[in-house]
Amino acid sequence: MRRSTPYLLVAPFFLLFLAFGAFPLLFTLWMALHDWELGSGTRRWVGLGNFRYLATDADFWHAVVNTAGIFALSTVPQLLAALVLADLLDRRLRGAAALRVALAAPLVTATAAVALVFTQLFDSDHGLVNGLLGLVGVPPVDWQGGRLASWTALAAMVDWRWTGNNALIYLAALQAVPRELYEAAALDGASPARRFWTITVPLLRPTIVFTAVVSTVGGLQLFTEPTLFGAAGAHRMDGGAQHQFQTVTMYLFESAFGQDRYGYGAAVAWALFLLIVTFALLNALVLRRRTGGAR
Amino acid sequence: MTARRAGPLTRIALAVALLLTAAPVYWMVVVASRTSAEAADVPPPLLPGGHFAENVRRLFANPDAHFARGLLNSVLVSGCVALGTVLLGSLAGFAFAKLRFRGRDALLLTVLATMMVPVQTGVVPLYLIMLRLHWQDGLQAVTVPFLVTGFGVFLMRQAARDVPDALIEAARVDGCTTLGVYRHVVLPVLRPAAGVLGLLTFAQTWNDFLWPLVVLSPDDPTVQLSLNNLATAYYNDYALMFAGASVAVLPPLALFAVLGPRIVRAVLSGAVKG
């Protein structure tokens, strides 16, 4: 074997990553220190000006709250449901293999297509969701107009995609848990719910932390669902007339590509990056504590 | 080790989960095969109707959707990215798993670290790079930057570790070059994992939305951008949009129907995370 061969084999990855991954990441920081417009060709050094503006930009913080709100509304029920689902799937059952495949299928179903369907389902006037709520006497909800209501509709789209997939990841971890633990607990008279909280959850802790971090990285970049949810509006990147469901990434998109404020868009991108890192670390820390030893 | 038996409550709960998963897709097909007015009927239609072919015809004839073009572009782009990721990922994965070279462990750690970088952070300068290369509005802009990922390299490296060293030694004694070893010894072992990686990459590229929206033009779109064109201009024509959605979800789902069981098994054995 020639000495250079291994390096040649791994080179394509590193070259592509350097050119289209690492370099843009660093260059974002450089751009964020400028007033950078493509239309006029402006490229003026402003130091931390963009970040100072960002710190007091009410629209940006509004988008941060929206993003965090949708993230919390989707992730907490999603991971809980996935845990329960994994626990249910970890049993002897005919057709289990096919069931698992069906529950994983949303992952490969186009987000844009699903967003179109859910947008119609959550239509205030003709949507099935309001129709079903009407059957149990709930008055129609303005899913687009309300802040919390629109977050809920978006959370439903996110959860439809990810719950089954996370359940399979939990199931993989669960299958490594010795059955004797459950049998012993059952003999000791522990109820199924108690076994779930005292055996399943603590043993799955590392996996729960992993999925929470992955959900954070993905959830805080939410873009496709809210963009299509607001596609009927005049200014779709606004995320509703009152920006009630505009996410940080939509704001980034609008600042850079919509308003030709590329420097500011870059600053928003870095703020989003920091937000993701902070949230991911926080979630990991909190979960490590919360799901700790047996109760 | 005996697994717990599934009781009636478990069965009901799993049936509900399955129903919730299938319902939106089923509803998509129902509306796609009816007229737009019927989608708003009270009570709603519960079975598919007879207008699917007509809606699909309208879809491909629609002047704003550029649907046929979008479909073709998506097949080309997703196919190239999937092939590239499998090829380049398996070559690098083989090197990381089976060849000894200086700096290997540090480089592998770097690969892992790149998997945690949120892609959107670089999207603004990436667009400027595309302008500089004159790649905007061209398919290379949504293909070349994604021809191999850290995830692909890592997944292939995990799978390549299963190749017995003795087999590689034997091939070398028989005069195989390193590339010969890759082709005749490693690649056959990698095939199942490569199938998983290929499908996941294909689906991910097929479903990508933000970056194509940034860099491509609406009249030479990917299929997701075609849907986007419909959603902006025809948001009241549900039958048309849902026909588009039905066609747009089909290729990855069809592949998944074939390869899904293998993928789920790979996830359950801990080979794939996230």
Describe what you observe in this structure.
Chain A: InterPro entries: ABC_transporter_permease, MetI-like, MetI-like_sf. Chain A: It is found in: Cell membrane. With 295 residues, chain A is an all-alpha fold. Chain A has one domain (60-290): MetI-like fold. Helix content of chain A is 69%, strand content 3%. Chain A contains 13 helices and three strands; from the N terminus they run αββααβαααααααααα. Chain A has helices at 5-32, 49-55, 58-89, 96-104, 111-121, 128-135, 147-174, 179-187, 192-203, 205-219, 224-229, 248-258, 262-290; strands at 34-36, 43-45, 91-92. Chain A has a two-stranded antiparallel sheet with strand order 1-2. The mean pLDDT of chain A is 91. With 274 residues, chain B is mostly helical. Chain B has a single domain, classed as Orthogonal Bundle (MetI-like fold). Chain B has 13 helices and one strand, in the order E-H-H-H-H-H-H-H-H-H-H-H-H-H. Chain B has helices spanning 8-32, 36-39, 52-61, 67-98, 104-114, 123-133, 140-143, 150-160, 165-173, 178-207, 210-215, 223-233, 238-268, and one strand spanning 4-5. In chain B, helix 4 (67-98) crosses helix 8 (150-160), helix 8 (150-160) crosses helix 10 (178-207) and helix 10 (178-207) packs antiparallel against helix 13 (238-268). The longest helix of chain B has 32 residues, at 67-98. The two termini of chain B are 28 Å apart. The chains are: A mainly alpha (295), B mainly alpha (274). The interface between A and B is large, with 97 and 102 residues.
